[in-house]
Amino acid sequence: MAKIALITGVTGQDGSYLAEFLLEKGYEVHGIIRRSSSYNQERLEELLTEEEAKTILNNSNFHLHYGDVTDALNITRLINEIQPDEIYNLAAQSHVRVSFDMPGYTLDVDGKGTLNILEAVRVLGLTEKTRVYQASTSELYGKVQEVPQKETTPFYPRSPYGVAKIYGFWITKNYRESYDMFAVNGILFNHESERRGETFVTRKITLAAARIAQGKQKKLLLGNLESLRDWGYAKDYVECMWLILQHNKAEDFVIATGEMHSVREFVELALKHVGINIEWQGNGVDEKGINLATGEVIVEVDPTLFRPAEVEQLLGDPTKAKTLLGWNPTRTSFEELVSKMVKSDMAKVSNEETNRKMFDGVLV
What enzyme class is recorded for this protein (predicted)? Predict the structure, then answer.
């Protein structure tokens, strides 16, 4: 019989890639979406191309359920009905900057939501049947105590998001050790893709590059250009999530590339992919990116976009995942990642203009 997987956060970047990956492996996949007054499947649909949508949404082995990880009764009922072999908890308030504005909500979803899933598996007597993957984060390391960061590196979170995820990490480990559950943490470093939310800095950059190149935007405003991150490709990372649950022992793993790049590098590469070369002038909050061809300022620093407590650098050590799981963290290079995102956003911006003209009745 086909394995049954339950994915929370299925409408996000990782959830959509994971659903696609598991369906290709013959799984019966169940995804949880939150109930709202609007058509909530739209978020999933807008992430996908027409061909991808057919692969996932029209697949008879794909099922959507209304639910919310903060509702313990709802989650317990769904897990009891679905009887999953594997649970991937990807649901989260995952925007670090927003977590400073909504710390309570972030704690409810990222912390208590994880507990609700683990407790449901326990009270339903599924500890021997159901394996649980908890999406952890490099933000646990925050003010880094060691470079690179590995599974044994001490945590020092610098945001309400990181603190909430600390609880999710430790409660997962606690249930593993207390109830002999196959419950594991994947400590994912930054992972991006064409499906990344538009409020995240990488997608903000690639969209701006596309819009500036097509004359739809004048300037890109950013926070800390010095921030250094370990950026990987989300589609590669979901494979590692799956490999962790197939491992013969319940263990926690760092999921990273082992390479680090700055926000400034990301900007330069994204603009280069649309044919724009820039020169940096000034320092700190006064630094600007100048279009060499036109002399126009197209990148500026906005101090309001800085976090109250900055995380200056994150660099993961994927040795354990490479050695024990046979996972390749650099199948997609940093340059390829940026290229894929820019190419997708160039098409998106072009289509937006086409659709606008069609709406206005002046399609040419």
Answer: lyase
Q: How confident is the model at residue 351 (pLDDT cuts 50, 70, 90)?
A: confident
> Is there a catalytic annotation at residue 146?
no
Residues counted in the chain: 364
**Whether 50 is catalytic:** no
218 phi and psi angles, rounded to 5 deg: -90, -40
3-state secondary structure of 87: strand
Could you tell me the pTM of the whole model?
0.89
Q: Which of 20, 28, 86, 139 is catalytic?
A: 139
Distance of alpha carbon 236 from alpha carbon 13, whole angstroms: 12
Q: Which residue out of 17, 88, 161, 237 is catalytically annotated?
A: 161
- Distance, CA of 29 to CA of 33 (rounded, Å): 13
- What order of strands is seen across the sheet that includes strand 62-66? 62-66, 28-33, 4-8, 86-89, 131-137, 183-188, 253-255
pLDDT at 358 over 60: no
Asked whether the predicted pLDDT for residue 211 surpasses 50, the reply is yes
- Verify whether residue 139 is a known catalytic residue: yes
